[in-house]
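Appendix B, record 7
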Amino acid sequence: MPVTDITTDVENRTLTITAEFAAPVARVWAMYADARQLEQVWGPPEYPATFVDHELRAGTRTTYYMTSPEGEKFAGYWDITEVVEPQRFAFLDGFAGDDLVPNPALPVSSNVYAFEEVEGATRAVFTGTYETAEGLQTVLDMGVVEGSTSAINQIDAFLA
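Structure tokens (predicted):
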């Protein structure tokens, strides 16, 4: 399984997931840069994602939704703040309504996805920092660890 470590630090309001993929950094980066590829692995397998807008470039907004087995849609967005290809990208990650407009009632996290080549494979460190400890706890209660783990653990099979 790609996920090798999960660290929740309530004091610093962070959730960090470390994973290792059996593919070079350039291949992993290409997956995150391409909406159609990203749809195959963003979100748990039973909640397939549809990306409406996605351009991995600072200053852009990515919008997407995941569809539950019952057909319910859960929308989100990324406001991309930094892109250093292929080492890392940073973005604000939030929840949105059905109209893809950000929902200010739910937590927003500041994220850095960093990629490093390790013996022909890729070590990825996904770090999300929340504005408040309560915001972090909200997403933990929503199942972010379980959902992220199942999503990340399907990446190797997709890249193979």
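Remarks on this record: The two ends are 13 Å apart (CA to CA). The mean pLDDT is 97.
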